[in-house]
Amino acid sequence: MISEKEKIILKRFGQHLKSLKEKQELSYREFYKRSGVNTGDIIKYENGETSPSFITIVRLAIGLKIHPTALLDFDFGIDFNAGLE
After folding, report:
1. What is the pTM of this model?
2. CA–CA dist 69, 40 (Å, integer)
């Protein structure tokens, strides 16, 4: 079961992913062509509905032509000292 804090992280990741895509004015179709990640999955990530695997993060980064660490460079919205409980 996913915790409330994990839901916050997924939502914020999705917002960040969508922002990066929109800054490049990428359509879902073009993003799919560049990354190989299914459009339906991209939408799920953007909506914070599911968590991408490590390889998917790499593919998304390739699609955005950025380093994978840039996908994780956002405010997670949690206190890392408090854990995920």
Report:
1. 0.91
2. 23
